[in-house]
Each structure stands twice: as structure tokens, then as C-alpha cells.
Amino acid sequence: KDWVPSSRFLICLSCRDKSRTASKMKPWQGYAHAAVVALSVWFCRETVFEALQWWHGRPPSDGLLLGSCFFLTGLACVPIVALHFSHVMSAKRCLVLVVATGLLFILMQPPIPLSWTYHSDIIKAARQSADDISIYGFFASKSTWPSWLLIVAILLTLASVTSTIPIKYVVELRTFYAIAIGISLGIYISAEYFLQAAILHVLIVVTMVCASVFVVFTHFPSASSTKLLPWVFALLVALFPVTYLLEGQVRINKTILGDSAVQDMGEEDSKLATLLAVEGARTSLLGLYAAIFMLIALEVKFELASLMREKVVDRGGVRHSHSGQSSSTTTVPPRLRFMQQRKASAVPSFTIKRMAAEGAWMPAVGNVATIMCFAICLILNVNLTGGSNRAIFFLAPILLLLNQDSDFVAGFGDKQRYFPVVVVISSYLVLTTLYSIWENVWHGNAGWGLDVGGPDWFFAVKNLALLILTFPSHILFNRFVWSYTKQAESMPLLTIPLNLPSVLMTDIIKVKILGLLGVIYSLAQYLISRQQYISGLKYI
């Protein structure tokens, strides 16, 4: 074939040693080389097909083959971009998009229309082979067309991140981008996970559009977006209970009216299948909304942190310009240096008060999203794990996304950011311990098993007493995390022995965890207070 020597020659020219010549390709030469590379990969599709067939042991899907071609084309163009167009951002962006497209096709393997079928006798013969049918038999394949929507959403996001689509500068393009992302993800989620509830598809699509618009316009605000975004978030919050309750009602009504899929089943079996389907779908909805609220909380936290950082830098620059050369020629005494550090630490709380002109709703929205995400995750923990004790240690750090807001909790700021995490862990373990004790002494219709001197009475009294012994350490540490005020160093150490009986004598694992946490909290409080005392001596 005539294309083989020419393609080899062009590829060798593009990959030759850079030390021999300092000349760069012209743009048209780069386009020509990229076209030759793409044609070379296309003509080698049979080799790629056979390699994939050898690797998988069966003929690859059309999506896998097309993705491999894209991926190989991108890899083959890496030397061209690295040697000759390393200074051109558009070339790097196109290369990233081509490689990402190939990887997405390889991972998702979307269905390819028949008109796109590769014109090759070898591929057609492999497709028409009856070996797979004789070995594996006939099987129903799952519809994979929604994967195209996910690929489109990911590629649009990647194009916006790499500034291939200039959504940062064009408001109309930003709006179209946000709506397109929301519709693509909404249809994908509806078709992939909620096929049986068609009426919910509209609600899910609207939910994803609202989430996409909120995130995009929070990151790249426009002139009027700060007034509309709180209403978008309110609509998103209102859609959560409506979608959650409507999902189960739709399935139950469908079962009552008589669905063809369940007519052949018994009445009890159909009810059980419906309840399981409702529970699974509602769990999926909870996971979806938890992810949405987590994304919103992260975005708001990031924007607030960026805004405060910019204002701190601006104030620092103004203060430095006013100081002039006097600060560089005079030495600062230790006490004055300590006062300056305390003033610098108070700057973030001051900048929050000045944020009203740029979006006072952001801290409140971020806090609502954080609390809803945490609450939904607790519900998922109960539904999926039955209320695991270890889950709270992974879920409580979500509360680090809470923002300083005087309407939320008075006095809550960056200094108290660890207080919600600590107090939630302690409260969760205490409440679940009380529930465990109640569950062990309540015998249903038989009533309470609390006869004085009986085993249940002894169990309840002993574990309640051991639970109460863990309170002093937790109360002291929670107060310390809130205020960080120095207390007597002996107080945390004196509470350590109170936790030892809870660790050694309890019958409930949660009480033992509370006792261990009490010991850790007391030691941590003592060490932090000691470090603060030593640091304070340096300024005296």
C-alpha cells in the first residue's frame, strides 16, 4: 500500500532528534502529521482488532475498538506536540481531549450504530462467528446507549476545564454548558437506575440541571447569578422530599393497578418485590442527593476560602504599602510581634462581615448543604450497614465544610471548625449506646425486663453508670475545642482514670469506644494546652 512508506517517513520526521535541528513545524505541517497518524491507525484497525481479541479471548465491542483507535492516535501524536508545539496550548488541549475520548470509549464501550461499522472482512467474519453462541449461548444484553450521555458530559467538563470552551468569559455559553451537563447527567441517571419510574425522569433531570447551574455559576458568577442562585438551591432542596416520596408512591400504585410483569407472581411475592424495589430506588436517590449536596458544599467552601484569601492579600498589600520603609529599618519587639500575629488571625472573621456585598447567602447555603449531606449519609448508614459504629468517624469530617455564619451558630468561626466533628461523634455514640441499652431491656409486648436484681436490670444499671463515667472527658474536650482557652493541666489528666472502667468492664462496644476516645481526648487536650503554654513563653 502506498500510504505505508509516506506515513513512516512523516512520523520519523516528526520524532527526529531535537538536538539536530532547532526548527519547529508549521501549523499546517502539524495538521498533516496528525492526519497521517490518524489514517495510519485507521488502516491498522484490523491489527488492533486482532490484538484486542487475543487479549480478551473474544471479539472486542465496537466501542472498545474505536476507543483504542482514538487512544493510539493520541499517543502517537504526543511526540509531535511535545517537540514542535509545546508552546501551543490549543495543541495540548486537543491532545488531552483525544486521549480522554479514547479512554472513555474503552471504559464505557458505548454502542456504535451500524452505519459506523468498520469495513473489514476480518472484523465482519469475527462478528458473524457462531463460536460465541455455541460456547456462551444467547444472553440478553443491557442497553448501553446512556453511556453516550455520560461521555458527552465528561468531555464537556474536560473541555471547559482546559478552556477549550470559553465558558469563563461568555455568559450565554456558560448557561448552555450548565444546562447541557445537567440534561445529559439527568437522562443518564434516569435511564440507568430508574427505568421503572418514568414519571420521575423529569424530576431527576430538573434536579441535575439545578445542581449543574448552581455549581457552574457559583464558580463563574455573572451579574445576576448572585440573586438567582439562592432560589435555584431552594428548588433543589424542595425537589428532594418530593422525588423521594413520589418514587415509592409510583411503584406502589403501579403494583395495585396491576403490572404485566407482576401478574404472574403471587400476591405476597409481588408485594415483597415492590417493597424491595422501592427501598433500593430510594436508597439510590439518597445517594444521588448526598453527592449533589456534597458537591455544592465543597464548591461554596472553595469559593469562600478563595474570597477570604484574596481579601487578606489585598489588606496585607495595603498595610504593607502604608508601612513604607520604616518597617524594614526597625526591629519589632517580641510583645508587639505577638500582638501583630493576633491581629492577623482576626482578619478572616472581619472579611466575612464584608462579604454581604458579594453574596451573603453563600455561607448559609453551604451550611444547609453540608447538614443535609451529613443527615442523608447517616440515613444511608442505617439502611446499608444497620448503623455501623465505625461509619461515624468517616461521616463526621463532612461537617468540616460548615462555614462561619452568625445566623447559623453565634460565635462559630474558623477557630471552632473542629467542634462539630467532635461533638457529633460523642453525641452519636452516646445516643446509639442508649438505644442499645433500651433494645436489650425491652422485650416487646412482654414489657420491660427491669425487675430489681434481675439480669436486665443489672445490665442496664452497669452500662449506664459506665457510660456516665465517660462524660467528663468528652465535655472538657468539647469545651476546649470550642474555645481553646487554657485550663488547669491537671483536669484532663484527672479524667483519664474515669474512662478505664468503661473500657474494661462494659458489655457494649460503643461504651468501650467512648472510653477509649475519652482517654485520647484527655491526652490530646493536655498536649495541646502544654504546647500553647510553651509557645506563649516565647513572647514573654
From TrEMBL:
Coiled coil: none annotated. Keywords: Membrane, Transmembrane, Transmembrane helix. The keyword Transmembrane helix applies. The chain crosses the membrane at residues 28-43, 63-82, 94-112, 148-167, 174-191, 197-216, 228-246, 284-302, 360-382, 388-406, 418-437, 457-477. PANTHER family: NO EXINE FORMATION 1. This is No exine formation 1. It comes from Nicotiana tabacum. The gene is LOC107821185.
